[in-house]
Specification:
11 helices, alpha/beta, 8-stranded mixed sheet
Length: 306
């Protein structure tokens, strides 16, 4: 029990430290970190979906791309650096149930429910089909969106996300039971929860409710391996996601063969060096060019020649 508590404390404190230091530190590439959104949204609002008033923002023009944040995060905490990098796209960001400006309602938080909410948001915005990018918890939501609403997903990007509970390293999964509101005391996550108009008295309830989605076993392996949308999945080499978990899905979607002989799969996999689960957010300068190439490519499977 002591090991589980210690691991959970370390994960959460490192996460909070990462957020709080963004304003003061440079990332590993030498580029100044920036937590302020450079450009202003062209549209903000609340979508009435499934009994929820879901807060969203829209940036830029072009083909739509929706970004789905991780657990306990908000638009500014998770995506402030990334939004300006996606040039020439209409970037849509939203806050999930109970997060940020999307107030909680009397229903459990689930990956399936959040995916249905995103589906409703797309209908509200009159977007028939879009590219989806989800990070961590948002990756799980992205998987469920592709499973439950395949007609709305053109291409799928999952960063450090899992499609089964045992896709996480065992010690990481075991640590979830140790996460409580006390660990976030004084952190940017708690401060942002308060500053966006939520009742501070409900913060412990919020923390408990969000982590509950990872305390119940889930396994979408069969459905995930039938996803029709091309998938780009990226994890860090020091991530919380097991390599075999990502590889199993990549193989099921056409990977695991020599492309010069068999042709390229339409789906892609990246394992980023020197990168942790939280550190994925430091790697957007690496990831955005790869994501852009994936989204812009015709995904021709013909192997290259000399």
């Amino acid at each position: 029990m002591k090991t589980k508590m210690t691991l959970g404390l370390i994960i959460t404190l490192v996460f909070a430290l990462f957020i709080s230091c963004q304003q003061q530190k440079n990332d590993r590439t030498g580029s100044p970190a920036n937590t302020s959104i450079v450009n202003k949204p062209s549209e903000t609002g609340y979508a009435d979906v499934n009994g929820l008033k879901m807060y969203y923002e829209v940036y830029g023009e072009g083909k739509p791309l929706i970004l789905l944040h991780g657990s306990y995060m908000t638009i500014p905490l998770n995506w402030s650096q990334a939004i300006p990098m996606f040039k020439g796209r209409k970037v849509i960001v939203a806050e999930m149930q109970g997060h940020g400006r999307t107030r909680d309602i009397a229903r459990k938080i689930s990956y399936e429910g959040m995916a249905d909410d995103v589906s409703g948001l797309l209908r509200h915005l009159q977007i028939d089909s879009t590219d989806i990018l989800g990070y961590s918890m948002g990756g799980g939501v992205a998987f469920q969106l592709a499973i439950r609403h395949p007609e709305q997903v053109r291409r799928l990007i999952v960063l450090s996300g899992s499609y089964a509970h045992d896709g996480w390293w065992p010690d990481v999964e075991a640590s979830y039971r140790s996460i409580t509101a006390d660990i976030f005391k004084g952190s940017p996550i708690e401060k942002q929860y308060d500053s966006l108009g939520n009742d501070p008295k409900h913060f412990p309830e919020f923390v408990k409710k969000v982590i509950s989605i990872d305390l119940e076993p889930y396994d979408w392996s069969k459905d995930a391996k039938k996803i029709k949308a091309p998938l780009f999945m990226a994890i860090g080499d020091a991530d919380g996601i097991q390599y075999e978990h990502a590889l199993a899905l990549f193989r099921a979607l056409g990977g695991g063969k020599m492309g010069d002989i068999h042709g390229l799969p339409k789906s892609r996999l990246a394992i980023l060096p020197g990168t942790t689960h939280i550190g994925m957010m430091y790697r957007m300068d690496w990831l955005v060019p790869m994501i852009d190439d994936f989204l812009n490519s015709d995904l021709n499977t013909t192997p290259p020649t000399f």
